[in-house]
Specification:
There is one protein chain. By secondary structure, the protein is mostly helical. It folds into 2 domains: 57 residues, no CATH class; 56 residues. It is 53% helix and 12% strand. Strands 1-2 form a two-stranded antiparallel sheet.
Length: 117
């Protein structure tokens, strides 16, 4: 089992990946937490040393990324819509052709099964 944790800094992060058996992960977590507590960034480089006058702030937060607002700002939704418009006509033509084939097939079957009197 993998137990991944991260310690954030202002210019990067430290990743700790504890690889252990699933049956011993709860017993091994205290060792991982002890290692995490021992990590220290230099003064001014810690995540808590944020300086709003010099540090960049994203135009959107984590909630926006999850909610799709960031995707809208990045133009991903417009790209998807353009692709759907481009291939939508092709899909409609394929559906119409398939519908015509089914109609012809069902009419042909019913004509063969109906006895002529």
């Amino acid at each position: 089992m993998n137990y991944n944790t991260y310690v954030l800094g202002r210019e990067g992060y430290v990743s700790l990946n504890l690889v252990t058996a699933a049956s011993t992960v709860e017993a091994d977590k205290p060792a991982a937490h002890e290692l995490l507590r021992a990590i220290n960034f230099k003064q001014g480089r810690r995540y808590g040393d944020f300086d709003s006058s010099t540090d960049k702030v994203a135009a959107y937060g984590l909630a926006a990324l999850v909610g799709g607002i960031a995707a809208k700002k990045l133009g991903l939704l417009a790209l998807i819509a353009a692709g759907a418009a481009k291939f939508g006509k092709l899909i409609l033509v394929a559906i119409a052709a398939l519908g015509g084939w089914f109609a012809k097939w069902f009419k042909g079957r019913s004509a063969k099964q109906d006895p002529v009197s």
